[in-house]
Specification:
40% of the residues lie in helices and 14% in strands. It is of the alpha/beta class and 452 residues long. The strands form two sheets. Strands 1, 2, 3, 4, 5, 10 and 11 form a seven-stranded mixed sheet that branches. The protein has a four-stranded mixed sheet with strand order 7-8-6-9. β2 (47-53), α3 and β3 (76-82) form a beta-alpha-beta unit. α1 (2-13) packs antiparallel against α4, α9 runs antiparallel to α10 and α10 (249-263) crosses α18 (421-427). It is globular.
Length: 452
Amino acid sequence: MKKVISLALAASMALSLAACGGSASSSTAASDSSAATTEGAAAETTTIKVAAIETAYGTEMWQKVADAFTEQTGIGVELTTDKNLEDVIGPSMQGGDYPDVIHLATGREAALTEQFIKGNLIADITDVLSMTVPGEDVKVSDKIAGGFTETSLTNPYNDGKTYLAPMFYSPCGLFYNAGLLKEKGWEVPTTWDEMWELGDKALEEGIYLFTYPTTGYFDAFFYALMYSAGGPEFFEKATHYEEGIWDTPEAQTCFDIVTKLAKYTNPITPAQANDQDFTQNQQLVLDNKAIFMPNGTWIVGEMAEAPRADGFEWGMTALPAVSEGGDRYSYTWFEQCWIPSGAEHQDAAKQFIAFLYSDTACQIFAESGAIQPVLGIADTLEGDNKLFYSIYDNGAKAAMGNFAAFNAIPGVEVRTAFFDPVNSLVSGSITEEQWIEGVKSASDQMRANIIE
């Protein structure tokens, strides 16, 4: 097994790493602060290793949660956080030394989590759902909002079991400067026809309709677009690579919209659509050089210190409907937390994951803007978050799920086949037909290697 894991890691570490900034890391141990713990008992206390990706939410919240968990359970926590987490934990895992808990979402360039999924190297945590939250009298399943443990993001093998715990959720959509639209007297488009009309109007004033941070942000965008074009049934077939699905009218609608949107995209976008310069594309919206960009609620914190146009005000909208009166969707993106099957302290690790849904942990996370997918949490929010998390109260439908897991195929990933070509569509170096042919070819291989 260790050899298989090492091969998976070697493949993933060869890929460039996605990050939201520099590479400063921290590794600290949370001490047992329970006054009731004796010195002798403390010496026997289990200590788990927790590794968490550092994002715009910062690292302090993780230390506070680790400390609170230790105080509640007596289990120690050795915490490692880093913006390039794969680079930090990869070498030790290749040697067989695994964190007990890893908080690292799918969809990153290094694809470490995907490698573990494809290698069947993630522990089954279905029993966590029936565990009582440490310090409370309710089960984990009673706290997590509906639907979050019923998607391919948490149940990648379609076997009725949960392997990844849903974390920090964010309604995704098109973010924009509401102040600009107010100033110009422009309405937020509700259909794609209205979107193109706004694009033509804006171009007359030297403002592009669209930009994107990196092509990785097209996952949430494209998922919501698939729902809009064909509903849940089309989404399910497409994300499981059904033969002929990319020849359907619904698929063609999706391809046509993205291709047309590429023509309305600020042309500087592809050059900056990488993990070092992506904030410069986000800055285009703050500077009124582009109107819309796909993103998630973390954008507010990520760009909190960035300069912006006078009167700037964050706005967020679901994707426009394909036709008048059609459904509009906002994808719900969420991160994942999981236990490597090679972890040493799996029982204690499951207690830690259960604690992540406690009122204590949720409050600590929320103070940093990280919102757990628990029932009733939106009622506690204020300001921009109140606006963003109420999007589903304002007519938008929630889209969830992603492409089904498949066994590793050299050089073939969902992002490289479906989303990375958008850069080339914007620059004009490929045609829509070439993009579609690449998608069909990759989809055929994914279908042949799907993990059932």
